[in-house]
Structures are given as C-alpha cells and as structure tokens.
Design brief:
The protein is an alpha+beta fold and about 220 residues long. The chain has a domain of about 140 residues: Immunoglobulin-like (Sandwich), CATH 2.60.40. About 15% of the residues lie in helices and about 25% in strands. Strands 1, 2, 3, 6, 8, 11 and 12 form a seven-stranded mixed sheet that branches. The protein has a three-stranded antiparallel sheet with strand order 5-9-10, with no helix packed on it. Strands 4-7 form a two-stranded antiparallel sheet. A hairpin with a 7-residue loop joins strand 9 and strand 10. The chain starts with 5 loop residues before the first helix and ends in a 5-residue tail after the last strand.
C-alpha cells in the first residue's frame, strides 16, 4: 500500500488522541455520577470460614447442669408465718424409761417484741378421732414422778428466744390397731386463756383415757441464756 501523505497521518494521530482523551473524560464523568463525593470504594470482606457466633443463655449448644436442665434458679423456701400470738410451739422427742414417758415442748418468740410467759402451760389432749381425752393435767410432775420444777416465775423472751415445759406420764394400755387410749394431738397454750396450738408427738401420748399428765412450769431454754 502506498504511504499516506504526511499531512493525513498527522491528522489520524490527532484524531486517535482525541478519542482516547474523550474516553478518559467519559470514564471520569461516569465515576462522578456514581460517586459524587469521591469516597474511596472498599470491597466487602469475604465471610470467615470458622466464625462462631456468641452463645446466648438460651443457646441449645450451651452446656447444661444435669441436676438443673432448665437453668432456672429455684426459689428459696419461705419461712412459716408467725401466728398472731407471736409464739410457736414445737414438740421434742418422747423418751421412755420403765414405763415413764417424758416429752418437752419448746415455745419460741417469733415476733418482733418481748414476750412474757409465766406459770404452767394450758393443755388439752385429743385422740385420733379428735375427741377430747378425760385426762387430768397437773401443775407439777407429782404424783406421776419426781422431777425438778422451778415453779411459776416470769420468763421474758426477746425475739428468737425460747422457753420450754416438760410433759410426763405413765404408760397405759393402748389399742395398737385403733390407737385408742393414745393422745395423738396435744393442744397447748402459754397460759390459761391464751391461744392454743396443736402439736403431734412422735408416736402419741400412750396415756390411756383416764390417766394423768404432769407438767413443769415454763423455763428459759439453755440456748437462750
């Protein structure tokens, strides 16, 4: 092919340069349209292959206590309410020696002020059918037995302090099948005219239906001294 005239070659070169510059200008113009504030473009990071999400309290993958699978905290047991009288009664164990029986009953001041007890407890005994026993409740332990008895005296109990009385009786025949002659329920109050509370001695009072029940006057529990 014949060589192009020098003037035409120069014209073609200038045209190519113009097109190249025009292309660059077009690219810059498109970039201004899509990113007018000229912020740097950051490519999204690829997801990590072994990324673990944090374990929530309810996550099934969280280890559980085998004794508490739910993970819930059990409510603490509540303290029994203090009665209006401000005192509670609780029986001790029944001891037996040669036909003689003895059991203590503890009175606790569960209130918020000082309580005073004085003298002997007020007691009634009931059988399994809740019928009253014909029992003679004595102030003192004789003639059932001879036992130290401080006699009536004033005992002031601060909140939480205790006093006790001891009940004594002699064994009398009891029907093992019906428990007839056994005092299953003992209703006891701090003094005559005071509210009684019912306690259930372990094994009952095998006192018979016409027996005698000796008592000691209230005295301060050694743990309250």
């Amino acid at each position: 092919m014949a060589d192009l005239p020098r003037t035409l070659s120069r014209a073609l070169a200038l045209s190519a340069t113009a097109l190249l510059l025009a292309g660059c200008g077009l690219s810059e113009e498109l970039d201004r349209e899509t990113n007018p504030e000229r912020r740097p473009t950051v490519e999204a990071a690829p997801p990590a292959g072994n990324t673990q999400r944090p374990t929530s309290p309810t996550d099934p993958a969280r280890p559980t206590d085998p004794e508490n699978p739910s993970g819930r905290t059990a409510p603490s047991p509540s303290t029994p309410p203090c009665p209006k009288s401000g005192v509670t009664m609780s029986p001790g164990m029944v001891t037996a020696t040669m036909g003689l029986r003895a059991m203590s009953v503890t009175l606790t001041n569960c209130g918020h002020r000082v309580r005073v007890v004085e003298g002997y407890p007020d007691i009634r005994v009931r059988g399994l059918d809740r019928a009253l026993f014909d029992v003679s409740v004595l102030k003192g332990t004789e003639p059932v037995t001879t036992m130290d008895d401080t006699g009536p005296h004033r005992v002031a109990l601060k909140p939480g302090e205790r006093a006790y009385t001891t009940l004594v009786w002699r064994y009398s025949a009891v029907d093992a099948s019906t428990r007839r002659g056994s005092g299953v329920y003992v209703e006891i109050g701090p003094a005559k005219g005071k509210p009684r509370q019912t306690v259930e001695p372990d094994g009952g009072l095998d006192i018979g239906e016409t027996g005698m029940l000796g008592t000691t006057a209230w005295q301060r529990s050694p743990r309250s001294s």
